[in-house]
């Protein structure tokens, strides 16, 4: 899990420290993208106005213990599903959900 704190604004250490979240507050630069309430690109439910990528190992005061998904999960999806829909569903459940619950 991401070992971040409020002191660092939950920004991960290393190469992802200065990764900026793309913003389009007027919804004109990327009109077909999904926009959050503050203009961030990627998720309409992202109510975080932060400029940088953030990760945390805590949620509502509980510490996460599950690590990130590894290559085995992605390999499983590639090796067991031939339709794009089934592959996407597998990645969503085996990779993205694992990452969501670990951050």
Please report the number of helical segments.
Answer: 2
Strand order of the largest sheet: 1-2
Task: Work out the radius of gyration.
Answer: 16 Å
Poorly predicted runs of 5 or more residues: 99-103
Give a quick account of the main beta sheet: strands, pairing sense, barrel closure. Answer: 2 strands, antiparallel
The coarse overall form would be globular
Strand percentage, roughly? under 5%
Q: What is the count of β-strands?
A: 2
Q: Helical content, roughly?
A: 25-40%
Please describe the topology of this protein:
Layout: E1 58-59, E2 62-63, H1 71-80, H2 84-102
Antiparallel strand pairs: 1-2
Helix pairs in contact: 1-2
How would you characterize the overall build of this protein?
The protein is mainly α and 103 residues long. 28% of the residues lie in helices and 4% in strands. The protein has a two-stranded antiparallel ribbon.
């Amino acid at each position: 899990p991401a070992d971040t704190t409020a002191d660092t604004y939950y920004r991960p250490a290393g190469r992802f420290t200065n990764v900026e979240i793309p913003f389009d507050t007027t919804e004109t630069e990327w009109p077909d993208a999904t926009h959050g309430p503050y203009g961030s690109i990627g998720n309409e439910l992202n109510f975080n106005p932060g400029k940088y990528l953030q990760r945390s190992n805590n949620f509502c005061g509980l510490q996460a213990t599950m690590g990130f998904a590894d290559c085995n999960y992605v390999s499983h999806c590639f090796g067991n599903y031939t339709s794009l829909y089934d592959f996407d569903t597998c990645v969503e459940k085996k990779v993205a959900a694992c990452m969501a619950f670990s951050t």
